[in-house]
Amino acid sequence: MITRDPDMTRLLDRLEEHGLIVRQRDKADRRMITTRITDAGLELLKNLDEPIVVLHERQLGHLGEESLDELFALLERVRGRAVDV
């Protein structure tokens, strides 16, 4: 059986261990857990923005604006279909 729950829990555990998120149980409903990104997590994300943009430009920049618009539209259609499945 395939389940994503344990994978998500392990991911959140690792992020919390590194001080990138904090988790807190809801006082009214202990089944609910609120997850918030920390200042350290936000700083890490900020530092990742530029390298990701550079990577995307290197990988896709040669396509031009019209082709990128087409690609984006196709990916949106695929994503919409995946939600319906």
Describe this protein's structure.
The chain is mainly α and 85 residues long. The protein has three helices and two strands. It has helices spanning 5-17, 39-60, 64-84; strands at residues 21-25, 33-37. The chain has a two-stranded antiparallel sheet with strand order 1-2. Strand 1 (21-25) and strand 2 form a beta hairpin. The longest helix has 22 residues, at 39-60. It is flat. The two termini are 17 Å apart. The relative contact order is 0.07.
Q: Mean pLDDT across all residues, rounded?
A: 89
**Poorly predicted runs:** none
How many DSSP-defined strands? 2
Tally the helices: what do you get? 3
Q: For the largest beta sheet, what order do the strands appear in spatially?
A: 1-2
Q: What's the end-to-end separation, in Å?
A: 17 Å
Proportion of helical residues: 55-70%
Key phrases:
single chain; mainly alpha; 2 strands; 66% helix; flat
Secondary-structure map with pairings?
Blueprint: H1 5-17, E1 21-25, E2 33-37, H2 39-60, H3 64-84
In short:
The protein has 85 residues and is mainly alpha-helical. It contains three helices and two strands; from the N terminus they run αββαα.
